[in-house]
Structures are given as C-alpha cells and as structure tokens.
Specification:
This is Protein-glucosylgalactosylhydroxylysine glucosidase. There is one protein chain. By secondary structure, this protein is α+β, with helices and mostly antiparallel strands. The protein folds into 2 domains: about 140 residues, no CATH class; about 350 residues, Glycosyltransferase (Alpha/alpha barrel). Helix content is about 40%, strand content about 15%. The protein contains 16 helices and 13 strands. The chain has a 7-stranded antiparallel sheet with strand order 1-2-3-9-7-6-5, covered by helices on one side. Strands 4-8 form a two-stranded antiparallel ribbon. Helix 4 packs antiparallel against helix 5 and helix 14 runs parallel beside helix 16. It is globular. The two termini are about 30 Å apart.
C-alpha cells in the first residue's frame, strides 16, 4: 500500500506513526500520529515529538515566504546547474509545523493528527497540492485515496506466483519498488527523467550513482514494466530520451546521435569519470533495443511518427555506421576502443555485446522504416550484415571481445546477454558453452542482476536446477525486513538497487514463461 507504519505500545495508550508519499497527489507526502487510549485510563496523555528538520540545504539557495493555510513556506533554486550555462531548477515547499507535544484530552478515546508536506517546481503547484491534501484530510479521505490509487495500479500490474513465501515476497517487493519510482498515470507535467539504479538520489557525494540514469533503466528495469504497464514504459522512453536528441547530436563527434552513459535532467553526459562516457557506447544500442521491445509489444506507431521515436532510432543507426571501421583482413566492420558491460576490461576491440546490440539497432531501424514507409540508406543493412560478432568456431563460444582468454575474470553478465535479451542467433551448443564458461568466470561479488541472466539462459535449455541455483544467488542481495536490495552481495554498492530487482523480475516473467 505504499504506507510505512510504526506502532508504539505503552501501558496507557497505543501510538501509531504512519508515513506515505501520496500515490495520486504526486507532490504530496503525509504523515499522521494516532493516539488511542488503553482501557481503564482517563487522564490526559501527552506525547513528545522530536523533529530534526531545518529548512536549510547546502545544495539550494532558499528564502522564507509567508505562511499558507497554516503551513510554513520556503522557496528557492539549486546553486549549481547540471551543465555549465544550464538552468537552475526551482523548488517550492510547504509543510505543516510539528509541535513539541500532542495531547489526547481526558476522556477522549482516540485522536489522529495529520501533517502534510508539499514540494513542487512552482508556487502555484505547491499551494494547489497542499490545499488538495488539506481538503482530503478534512473529510478523512487522504489516506484512503492513496490506498485506492495503489489498488488500481496493482489491479493491472500484479503477478500471482505459486511458490514459497520468500519468493513471492521478493517478487512483490521488486514490483512495488519499481512502481514506486514511476509517475502515476495521468500525472502530466510531472518532472520525470527516468529511473536511477538506486531510485531517488540519496546518500553522500558519489553514492548511489548520484541519481543518474544508466543502461540499467532500459536493459534491466523496463522489460518487466513493459509487460505489465506499457504506459509507464513509454514514459520512461519518451521523457528521458526523445527530448534530448538535439543536444545528443551536438555533443557527439560522430554522425547521428550517441547517448550518454549517465544522464539526468538535461539529457547531456553527466558521468563524473570520462572513460565510461567515452567507451561504454553500448548504451545507444540499449536505448534502441528498449524502443524496439516497446514497438513490438504495443505496435504504437504514434511514438515513432509524431513523438520523436523515429528520429532517435535513425540517429543511432547513423551513429553506428560512422563508428564502425572496415577491416580488409577480416572483411568485416569493427568497433574499436570500447568498454563492454564487463567494466573490468576497458578499451577493447569488438566487444561481442556492443557489436551485437549495434547490429540489432541497425536491423530494427531498417524494419521500422519499412513499417513507417520511410526510405533509409543501404549502408544500414550492409553494416548490420557485416559487423563482426566474435565467435570462436573451434571452442563453440562467444569471446567477450577480441583477445579474450577463456577463464579471465568478468565483472557481470556480458556475453551471455547475446542469448537474452538480444536473442542473437546461435545453436544450443554455443548457448550452453557461453553459460558454462562465463558462469565460472564471473566475479561472485558482482552486481545482483547478473545471476538472473544466467537463470534465464539455463531455463532456455531446460536446465531447471541450474537456473534455480543462479536465481537463489539473488537472495543474498535482499535485506530484511523490507526486501531492500543492495547492489553487491557483501552489502556494498547502491541501495535500494532497482537494477537487481529488474533482473530478478525478468528471470521470473521471461525466464520461467519463455516470453519474448
């Protein structure tokens, strides 16, 4: 229900503290304190409250405004723009003052006190949201309207699983946290820029990926949401990608458009370390793959005809063609100097995943052009046919990149992604060999989503026990009691790791069903 409740029991009373971010009123948070008298007590009951909140921030320039309907008001803007010369977003906040004490009068059985916080980009919006919250609170409908909004969402997005309780709880928890990170349906104008690996930006500087958007969204989170909630998948694609196409063209030294490894509100590259933005170019193919999955799942041509989707797909196709170089010796196109998903190996040539996802981007661009009746250059098809996708014909497996030595340590799922989600053509023998070799070579302390992809692969080959073994590894990343995921099984990395949840959901929704 998206509600956190904390119950304190004493001899004289029971006190319940309830907190929630309202699912329908997207700018509103609420908390309440309810004191209920125990039997045989009649005296006044006083609870002391302690609030650590102060209206100050090292990131914001804030000014105090006049109170509004009993709420305190501050407003301001960020001190530093996302990119040099860019805008400094504004913030407006209203909150109900928290008194030092609350008293349940003598003879009264129960009382509930409501406190609201509204945060928005404009004074008009923050006041409207706060007023809506007050009106619902006055009729006793504030929390129930929140519950109703969640109930409507669960009606279309829930998954029923016949299995042990821990598995069902993990499934429900993953869905809840991902759905919590999305704007509700109908919330037009809400500033949504995508989902970061750890959700909302939090922690100290440099922690939890700064709230930036990576391939984690398109590759790991989106597929399951697309299956259950295609409107949200479209929002993830359209809001975070299509709007930034013009600046993507401008900053790329290649033709077409190259997506940033890390993006935020502007769509520009905001990765704090240059090597990743320069070399992890598979992100452009990851984005197009997400658009492809959306198109084949929904047949929604409006996104491509009128909302910038075709411009994006075609620009990435142009980029891949310009990024490839012809090898006379091998009679194939190469992509050189990249970092694959396995970030232990920078500046390699012909990353098998990067080249395969580039090939898929080009094939989809040509197929989509046919549906839209748009002419495209012949070089798109030629580059797709002739790009090198490394395959060791003798050992019958896919080397991760040119020069990879079997058994060399790998950070995370990489070459095994050719089978799923790329569905690159290969024999069952090659698929099995990829799984065998890279399962043994993958760092056991790697990120959580890795084992889900091995589970999907083993399920393809009807190796249920081996798939179960890989899926069980995911539970090392789940912390109790609220099913919070950590990036790495030793507790390090991003918290709450939505990327790992997305991989886990795919193992169940795509691995167990075989759906593609």
């Amino acid at each position: 229900t998206g509600t956190f409740s904390h119950v304190l029991q004493a001899a004289a009373c029971t006190a319940t503290h309830q907190l929630y971010a309202h699912h329908a009123l997207v700018h509103l948070m609420a908390f309440s304190i309810t004191i209920r008298r125990s039997p045989h007590t009649t005296q006044p009951i006083t609870a002391q409250l302690h609030s650590a909140f102060v209206p100050e921030s090292q990131d914001l320039q804030l000014s105090q405004g006049p109170d509004f309907q009993g709420a305190h008001y501050i407003h301001g803007r960020t001190l530093v723009p996302e990119v040099e010369g860019g805008p400094c977003p504004t913030v407006h906040m209203l909150w109900t003052p928290v008194p030092p004490t609350l008293t349940l009068p003598a003879g009264q059985q129960e009382q509930c006190w409501q406190f609201l916080v509204a945060v928005a980009e404009s004074e008009e919006e923050v006041k409207r949201s706060y007023s809506q919250g007050l009106a619902l609170s006055a009729t006793g409908a504030l929390h129930s309207s929140h519950l109703q909004a969640w109930a409507r969402l669960w009606q279309g997005c829930s998954v029923e699983l016949d299995g042990p309780l821990p598995l069902r709880q993990a499934l429900r928890g993953c869905l809840y946290y991902l759905l919590s990170s999305l704007p509700p349906q109908g919330s037009s104008g809400f500033p949504f820029h995508g989902i970061s690996p750890g959700g909302l930006s939090n922690g100290s500087q440099g922690e939890d990926y700064w709230g930036h958007i990576f391939w984690d969204q398109e590759t790991w989170m989106l597929p399951s949401l697309l299956l259950l909630y295609p409107e949200a998948a479209r929002a993830m694609l359209q809001e975070n990608k299509s709007s930034g196409l013009s600046c993507l063209r401008a900053v790329s030294s290649w033709q077409g458009a190259k997506f940033p490894w890390e993006s935020a509100a502007t769509g520009r590259e905001v990765c704090p370390e240059e090597i990743y933005g320069a070399q992890e170019i598979h992100i452009s193919g990851d984005v197009v793959l997400a658009f492809e999955q959306y198109y084949y799942s929904t047949q929604d041509q409006e996104l491509f005809r009128e909302a910038g989707g075709w411009e994006l797909v075609s620009a990435v196709a142009q980029y891949w063609c310009s990024r490839m170089v012809w090898s006379e010796q091998e009679q194939s196109y190469h992509i050189r100097g990249v970092m694959p998903p396995d970030e232990y190996h920078p500046r390699v040539d012909n990353s098998v995943y990067t080249n395969a996802v580039a090939q898929r981007s080009l094939n989809f661009a040509a197929d989509l052009a046919g549906d839209l009746l748009v002419p495209v250059p012949e070089e798109w098809g030629e580059h797709a046919r002739k790009v090198k996708v490394p395959l060791d014909e003798e050992r019958k497996y896919h080397p991760e990149y040119d020069g990879y030595s079997p058994g060399e340590l790998v950070k995370q799922a990489d070459a095994v992604l050719l089978g799923y989600p790329l569905m690159h053509p290969m024999s069952p023998e090659v698929r099995r060999n990829d799984l065998e070799l890279y399962e043994a070579a993958t760092d056991p302390g790697g990120p959580a989503m890795t084992w889900s992809m091995f589970a999907v692969g083993w399920l393809e080959l009807k190796e249920v026990q081996r798939a179960q073994s890989q899926l069980n590894k995911c539970f090392s990343n789940i912390t109790e009691p609220f099913k919070i995921w950590v990036e790495n099984s030793d507790g390090t990395g991003a918290v709450n790791f939505l990327t790992g949840m997305g991989g886990f959901l795919q193992a169940l929704l795509f691995g167990c069903t075989g759906f593609r």
